[in-house]
């Protein structure tokens, strides 16, 4: 399975991805590591990326997915058209749906990252939640009470994967 963790900045993709990778032994790729320096600088300045900025990045991530039949990828995948680029054989998505207030609190707390809270409005504007026909997307409605361990358990159960390696 190629598992893609989607959601806006601060939704917890990296946290969940690293935990799932530790549990499953599958490799973990973070979409953040594939941005160009220019794209990072733009986001660090609080400016959202355009479709044109994201296109080469999505194509790089698609190539990574094709090269890794069993992998966990953190990628915001905000628009339907972006998800369609990432849809290769045996792809599943988990959408981390987090209330904006919780996202804001997390991003204000997080220090060591180029994406700050000022990027959040453009992330939320760009987000297209999964359409009804996107049967390969499973949504996790995250509350402030859900610890990383809770979300890992829910994700593993939803995917039908064993809970421990
Ligand atoms: N379940 C959780 N409970 C509490 N805090 C969390 C949870 N998941 C993630 N966090 C915290 O929220 C912040 C954002 O998480 P993370 O970096 O994993 O998000 P992300 O979706 O990968 O963000 P980005 O796309 O900007 O890289 C981090 O400081 C992380 O420690
Ligand atoms: O599509 C996007 O705008 C980007 O993927 C962003 O979401 C960042 O990569 C990330 O979320 C911030 O670190």
UniProtKB/TrEMBL annotation:
<dbReference type="InterPro" id="IPR006001">
    <property type="entry name" value="Therm_gnt_kin"/>
</dbReference>
<keyword id="KW-0808">Transferase</keyword>
<dbReference type="GO" id="GO:0005524">
    <property type="term" value="F:ATP binding"/>
</dbReference>
<dbReference type="GO" id="GO:0005975">
    <property type="term" value="P:carbohydrate metabolic process"/>
</dbReference>
<comment type="pathway">
    <text>Carbohydrate acid metabolism.</text>
</comment>
<dbReference type="InterPro" id="IPR027417">
    <property type="entry name" value="P-loop_NTPase"/>
</dbReference>
<keyword id="KW-0547">Nucleotide-binding</keyword>
<protein>
    <recommendedName>
        <fullName>Gluconokinase</fullName>
        <ecNumber>2.7.1.12</ecNumber>
    </recommendedName>
</protein>
<dbReference type="InterPro" id="IPR031322">
    <property type="entry name" value="Shikimate/glucono_kinase"/>
</dbReference>
<dbReference type="Pfam" id="PF01202">
    <property type="entry name" value="SKI"/>
</dbReference>
<comment type="similarity">
    <text>Belongs to the gluconokinase GntK/GntV family.</text>
</comment>
<keyword id="KW-0418">Kinase</keyword>
<dbReference type="GO" id="GO:0046316">
    <property type="term" value="F:gluconokinase activity"/>
</dbReference>
<keyword id="KW-0067">ATP-binding</keyword>
<dbReference type="GO" id="GO:0005737">
    <property type="term" value="C:cytoplasm"/>
</dbReference>
């Amino acid at each position: 399975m190629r598992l893609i963790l989607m959601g806006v900045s601060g939704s917890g993709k990296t946290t969940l991805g690293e935990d799932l990778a530790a549990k499953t032994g599958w490799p973990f790729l973070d979409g953040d590591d594939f941005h160009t320096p220019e794209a990072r600088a733009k986001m660090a300045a609080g400016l959202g990326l355009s479709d044109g900025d994201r296109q080469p990045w999505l194509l790089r991530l698609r190539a990574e997915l094709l090269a890794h039949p069993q992998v966990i990828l953190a990628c915001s995948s905000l628009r339907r058209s972006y998800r369609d680029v990432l849809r290769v054989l045996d792809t599943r998505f988990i959408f981390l749906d987090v209330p904006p207030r919780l996202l804001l609190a997390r991003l204000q707390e997080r220090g060591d990252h180029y994406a700050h809270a000022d990027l959040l409005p453009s992330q939320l504007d760009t987000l297209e939640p999964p359409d009804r026909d996107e049967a390969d997307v499973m949504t996790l409605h995250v509350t402030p009470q859900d610890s990383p361990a809770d979300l890992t358990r829910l994700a593993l159960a939803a995917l039908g994967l064993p809970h421990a390696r």
